[in-house]
Amino acid sequence: MSGGLRLWLSRLGAMTLKELKQLSRDPILLVVIVYFFTADIYIAGAGVHMDLNNAPIAVMDHDRSAASRELIYRFRPPYFRLVREPQSIREAVRLLDEGKVLAVLDIPAHFQRDLLAGRQTVVQMQVDASNAMLGTLVSTYAGRIVARYGFERAKMHLGMGKAQLQAIPVVENRHRVYYNPNQSDPWFMAISEMLTVITMLSLMLPAAAAVREKERGTIEQLAVSPLSPAQILLPKVLAMGLAVLVGAAASLFLVIQAVFHVPIKGSSMLFFIMTALYVFATSGLGLFIATLSRNLGQVVMLVILIMMPLLLLSGAWTPPEAMPAFLRQAMHVSPLFYFTEMSYAILLKGAGLGVLWRLMLELALLGSLVFAFGVWRFRRQFG
Question: Tell me, which fold does domain 55-167 have in CATH?
Answer without folding.
Answer: abc type-2 transporter like fold (3.40.1710)
